[in-house]
Design a protein that fits this description.
- The complex is a heterodimer.
- Chain A has helices at 3-57, 92-105, 117-125, 143-158, 210-286; strands spanning 76-82, 109-115, 130-134, 164-174, 177-186, 205-207.
- By secondary structure, chain A is an alpha/beta fold.
- Chain A folds into 2 domains: 3-25 and 245-278, ATP synthase, gamma subunit, helix hairpin domain (Helix Hairpins); 26-243, Pyruvate Kinase, Chain: A, domain 1 (3-Layer(aba) Sandwich).
- A 5-stranded mixed beta sheet of chain A has the order 3-2-1-4-5, sandwiched between helices.
- In chain A, a hairpin with a 2-residue loop joins strand 4 and strand 5 (177-186).
- In chain A, helix 1 packs antiparallel against helix 5 and helix 4 packs across helix 5 (210-286).
- In chain B, the strands form 2 sheets. In chain B, strands 2-1-9-8-5 form a 5-stranded mixed beta sheet, with no helix packed on it. Chain B has a 5-stranded antiparallel beta sheet with strand order 4-3-6-7-10, covered by helices on one side.
- In chain B, helix 1 (98-114) runs antiparallel to helix 2 (121-139).
- Chain B is elongated.
- The chains are: A alpha/beta, B alpha+beta.
Chain lengths: 287, 145
Amino acid sequence: MPEQVRDIKRRIRSIKSIQQITKAMEMVAAAKLRRAQEKVVAARPYAREIQGMIQRLLPAVNTITHPLLAPRKSHRVGYVVVTSDRGLCGGFNGHVTRHTQMLLSKEKEYGLITIGRKGRDYFRRRGYQLLAEFVAVGDEPTVAQTREIAQALFDLYEKNLVDEVNLVYMEFISAGKQRPTVARLLPVEAPVSEKLGDGPLLDYFFEPEPEVLLDMLLPRFVIGKIYSGLLESKASEWAARMIAMGAASENAVEMIDGLTLTFNNARQAAITKELSEIVGGADALKG
Amino acid sequence: MAQEERSKHNEFTLEIITPERVVVEDEVESVVLSSPEGYFGILRNHAPFIGGLNIGVLKYRKDGKLHWVASDNGVFEMSGNKLRVMTDAAERGEDINVLRAKQAYERARQRLDERRAGMDYLRAELALKRSLARIKAATGEGQSS
């Protein structure tokens, strides 16, 4: 068989093995996405209930001078960008890093904190200074990890290295749709108490004092927010990876179809050529 | 329990919620939890209350049967016959591996006894408290009441 035909055959084989890999990755991503989505849903009540408690507690607190609540004249705006550690997830990291870059370009002074290897590498390569970085969050972010991140943020905030902290992450809307979102972490935006408790203002008893309770609730509220951001980002990452791998598998099918056609044409041409040579030779003998 | 056939008029809702998930969501007859001020008992129609929660064991009664849950620090709120317990971690007694909890307890004890220089004393003590709470929750504190 001529050189050309063998080359095409080799290419078809290599594309087929790539396709096997992308198909497997697509399936793994689909399974991981389901788990990640379940975790997002399971974590929702905590964030919601803590916010409700803060809402009901605030009227009992005399002055809103809590360090985590009091708004500052924002000078240095902190952004915490959540990205993935691994690639092969389509435009996932590109979306969120570009969105962050756009936000940073609007600030006079900012502090940047990255979560995930991709975000760290992206901003480092472009010469951004990072206030802090967290990598290797893993496939399933834990509360313990979140606490570490939150603690670092509280420290930066306390030392006035940032006067406001926002979380930028990919919000999970559906398997086919995710979008970059910004959530305020610090100072805690006092939840608008449009309804104090349910119905009339209940006369609560507090023990310890409301101020102490607020002290306990506010950090937990922030941790809850970061945690759900991490979970949503994870779900978005797996969704993006699933879609990207699905598209790759489809492209492989197209390429194999095209190559198979060329292969058959080439083979046909070779056979025709050989035949005509034989016939030509026989004719010559007849003379 | 002498009064088996209790009416449902003495029940209220108990929710134990951690950052990860809702650990308990049930209609219960009574709850005893450990707060910084000591043990705190709650029955239906308790006045609206927000309080602190300690590392320890939360005990609740449902259909006359006692259940134990190991809880971490947190905050609880009773209002409108709904008790919400927000805690950093919680585990039902029946889900706890007693052997592992005991091992964790021994480890924490050892670390505290050694008193090595530069050790995080507070952290070791918290680990001890947590493991003790888990053992108690798993074994029903040795008795009921």
